[in-house]
Structures
1.
Amino acid sequence: MSTKTTLKRIALVAVSALGFGLMSVAPSNAAVQSDALTLASTTSSTTVGSAVTNAVSLTFIDTDSGAETATATVALVSSPVTSSAMPTLSITSAQATANTAGTTSVSNLVMSLASTGAGRFTGSATISLTPTVAGTYVIRVTPAGGLTTTAQTWTVTVDSALTVTAANSTSFIVAGETSTATADATISVPMTFSADQRATIVVTPRTAGDLAPVSAVALTATISGPGTLGIGGAASNTAVTAISSTGRAITGTAGDYWVGVFSDGTAGVATITISAGTTVLATETVTFFGAATRITPTVVNAVIPASNSGAAVGAITAIVTDAAGVPVSGVRVYDVSSATTIISDNYGDCGLSDATGKVTCNLTGVAAGTASITLTTNSAATVTTGISAAPVSIRVGSASPATVALSFDKATYVPGERATVTVTLRDSLGLPVVNGTY
């Protein structure tokens, strides 16, 4: 045998051995197929001292009768530099009931799922973190024992428990002076200057930990539009009446949670913004009005019955405004009929305008016919110093239909198209009947 032949044979043997060696390399977990690692959440938020949890789940198919094991390892990748908090891993009672396929166990920060033969196996455990420092915590969960190699990441954002939040805080505005309020009111007050507050905003600043009040926080308040503000409520200033106007952008001390709103002689709508630091807790509005200069009526029911019921109730509404068009509240309005034998109201009292300037007038029909109704602030014919609206026409009609007419909004329709049908009821004189249900 030549030296060349010997070398070739040695080389061939080496190549063959190498080839068989490569062919014999197989995954030790070849029986584990279709495995997956999932997290219930990829991001969460909490506050210092409040635990936050996440569920980690493993699943795989065991293709043979031998026992196989897949694992998920939890690791804290990053956290605030002053934090020493570590995540924990456990199996809750609910999970213990659900983890019936295979055996799920936890050792420190490693969850294991072991099969008991061929089939699909699923297990779950709970990751928990109780942060001690505000900041961002990144937790990584890495699988092993299967074909899946992609780690999952859970990012937890932690706020200080003493951070004031708009979501937890409350703000209520009421007219006049008060230290308690549980609901917002619509505030419409005179614009004339007054040293007493026209409205009070009662603020309860709450933290992310839902603690209230927070004595360590100072509130700021600004106003746009007319008016000025004052703030009070600290231990040395517990009386709401002690609040005085100090400006349009004010800052109180810790515990000053009552904001007074004052008129400055200017009409319009004011917006008050209340903040704790850079966090806006609430906005409230106050309408300052001047003297009433206009009544704008709207006819709700142009035809009323010969009675003081049905369509006669609320037959006319009106809005009372000042010279700038700002709604005026607290103005008493009267209705005057041009023909009291048809509509008997003669300086009937409609009532006071509300916070939106609205007032509603009920009429009393007597006999068929038409009368002009004038809304005025004058309470009698001898009073002429108030304001009056342009008269509107109201007819006293019949409530007994004599004819019914139908009309359509179009002459023809395609299949499935909506048609609008108008039904008109008229009395024996051919006039529309009183509004109502027939």
2.
Amino acid sequence: LHPGRSASLWVNGPSGGSQPVGYAGELHPVVLQRLELPGRALVAELDLLALAGAGREQVRFAPLPRYPSVVRDLALVAPVELAAARVLEWVRAHAGPLARQVKLFDVYTGPGLPEGTRSLGISITYQAADRTLSDAEVDEAVRALLQALEPLGLRLR
């Protein structure tokens, strides 16, 4: 193999130690000439039994959701000294059982906000596994969340 264009392939074995399972790379130019091959050629060899034995974890998956999600974006006015990570933590804890994902997508400081505050843009994805959510259900979850955020000094912008 070409010394600068090849690699040995290794995996972690069941006992935790590494073991070789093959190699891959470009053939050396001298070999290409001897074999009268035009251009470049690649080669690989894998020990499939060693690869099969290396998998320690069982593969898990979740089927794709059958029902649509609903995304609500909130712009929350927060004291500057309140860490955004703490706000996200609080939102995750109080967003309700239908909340699947909470993300911070924007931080704004500047004109239009009271001094000592900033706006945090937070996106919340709601979804039920057994039905399509109604607007009323999501609105109620958001209303309850906004009440739960008041003790932190957060309000809707």
3.
Amino acid sequence: MRIGSIIGSRLSRFGLALSAALAAALATWAAPAARPPAALSPAPALAPLPPDLAGPLPELRRAAEEYRGLSFRAPVPAGLLSGAALRKEIDRQVAEEMAPGTLAALDAALKAFGLIPESLDLGTYYPTLLTSQIAAYYDPDRKYLAVVDLGPKDDAAVAKALGAAFAERARQGVLVH
């Protein structure tokens, strides 16, 4: 047997084992077990939406219904969620929906493939990444819409960077999405 085929064979077995570990980790996370409503943890406390967000909601709802050709089944409660409360919600959901060891397996697989640096702790970084990327979300189990409160400083920075009109349309787009 040639050295290339020995190395290839070992790499193939390693790759298959690593792929299986990665697939198992992703499968346990991507398809969480359905929970009965009684098993749901309480929804985070939401502050009322400010008038500039709450005001256009009826028109945005009508436009979404018209565009999709579907009607809302019920009104959707909506409110503001602070960045700190969002992080707590992300941490709770990761703990509830990921089987123990899933992040560790995913961390090992991503490092083995060289997709993340060895120094990165995926267990810490992943919730931080999710928190930084969420502008709003709808919780289908608890049936509410949470809009992340960026605060006046970040709202002003977005308006300055994009222009006030575009920033407002972006906020409306987040609500409709």
